Amino acid sequence: xxxxxxxxxxxxxxxxxxxxxxxxxxxxxxxxxxxxxxxxxxxxxxxxxxxxxxxxxxxxxxxxxxxxxxxxxxxxxxxxxxxxxxxxxxxxxxxxxxxxxxxxxxxxxxxxxxxxxxxxxxxxxxxx
Length: 128
Description:
128 residues; mainly alpha
């Protein structure tokens, strides 16, 4: 293998490795995107379930029944709040990790380029 072929082989190998590492890092991050998009809907379903279960309390006296319904309705909103909280946290984590992955991708590309440049300099100064 000549010098140029060795440099190209090193460049291709580093490129394949960079792609593989990127895929491994991105694997878990996509789960965060799924959680971010589904958490509010699960919270809303919990709220609707809570609202539906709030009204059987109307069978007793008017005053106590109404206060019981209001209490149950306020408790049912907790599901939506939790769903939104989970979505906000996972969205922030997703954005942070995507930024970190982009920075690591850039570092990997720079390191691969530096490796090829260093190998090219070594090849020029010695007989490979």
